[in-house]
Amino acid sequence: MKHSLFGAALAMLAGAAPAFAEMTDIRFTLGWKTQGSDAPFLLALHKGYFEEEGLNVTIDQGEGSAATVTRIMGGAYDAGFGDINAIIQNAAARPGEAPVMVYQLWNRPPFAIVTPKTAGIESPADFEGKTLGGAQGTPTTRLFPVFAELNGIDLEKVAQENMAPNLQEPMMIRGDIDGAFVFTSTSWFNLIANRQDPANDYNWFNFEDYGMDLYSNGLMVSRAMLAENPEAVAGLVRAVNKATMEVAANQDSSVEAIMAFDNLVNPELERARLEFALTNLMNAPEVTEIGMGDLVDERLTRSIEIVAKGYGLDRLPEASEIFDRSFLPPMDTRTFEVTLN
């Protein structure tokens, strides 16, 4: 599915032909299929904020937040919404080739282990003697050994089963596994779709609460775009920041933009997913001090160390290889306050 801005053609009809030459094409990939948490990008597209910056942005659906990184590295896309931890992995092996995060949106990670309360798992120690299921290669699964070490869990006493992501919740509901390695923003709504009550009938072991203080998804751009067209990067960041502030204040216009992009999604479900992201993934305490889009270098450095340990990386990238704050708009335009309506 592709949606493009063709404001340049309208400008030409209005007698402003020179504007056409100034438009910059940007190929943009989302992190997954259309979801409410994509609202900052879809609102910027819908309201013409990209066009105001002289950008002709084409947005495609994604194949996973880690795949955003490889899609950009492969040259198919110039920018996208993806996981900073996947940047760390690729920057370690291929320095100078991995994309760079320029606007951090999810300042809290979605990585968690979810267990039904009937499984009797109330603390990390209770994982011993239980069976956990997850998709091989996902951050939650790969980082579990680090989680276990930090929380005194004997890995040899925890059975782990590899399974497709779409089987995790059904198998947990049936009792085939005692818990699952998940992304909260996905699993929460999968449970609801299976007529479960994720708030009252499940325990959530969020990695950030157990020593895994990681960042997650945000706006990243290719090294080529950084080097060849920094003005376009700055315009892209300004447009996304403007839309992010509006998303926090007005979810009605956000859902309208989501539906304009993809009218096959469930508006109520994706509104709920957007609200979940706003109140669970984008509200780290540091935002009040540094504003939306920025991050804390020391925390990023700790994240790099955690990811390196979990993935067995041979090299620790510097924080400056992963994140570039030089394109951020002034702090007073990035004050993030969520108002649910």
How does the SSE layout of this entry go?
Blueprint: H1 7-13, H2 18-22, E1 24-29, H3 39-46, H4 49-52, E2 55-60, H5 67-73, E3 79-83, H6 84-93, E4 100-104, E5 111-116, E6 131-134, H7 139-142, H8 144-150, E7 159-162, H9 168-174, E8 179-183, H10 184-193, E9 202-206, E10 217-221, H11 223-228, H12 230-249, H13 251-261, H14 267-280, H15 287-290, H16 297-311, H17 319-322
Parallel strand pairs: 1-2, 1-3, 6-7, 6-8
Antiparallel strand pairs: 3-10, 4-10, 5-8, 5-9
Notes on the structure:
Residues 1-21 form the signal peptide. Homodimer. Belongs to the NMT1/THI5 family. Pathway: Cofactor biosynthesis; thiamine diphosphate biosynthesis. The chain has helices spanning 7-13, 18-22, 39-46, 49-52, 67-73, 84-93, 139-142, 144-150, 168-174, 184-193, 223-228, 230-249, 251-261, 267-280, 287-290, 297-311, 319-322; strands spanning 24-29, 55-60, 79-83, 100-104, 111-116, 131-134, 159-162, 179-183, 202-206, 217-221. By secondary structure, it is an alpha/beta fold. The strands form two sheets. It has a five-stranded mixed sheet, sandwiched between helices. The chain has a five-stranded mixed sheet with strand order 7-6-8-5-9. α3 (39-46) crosses α13 (251-261), α6 crosses α16 and α13 crosses α14 (267-280). The longest helix has 20 residues, at 230-249. The radius of gyration is 20 Å and the shape is globular. The two termini are 29 Å apart.
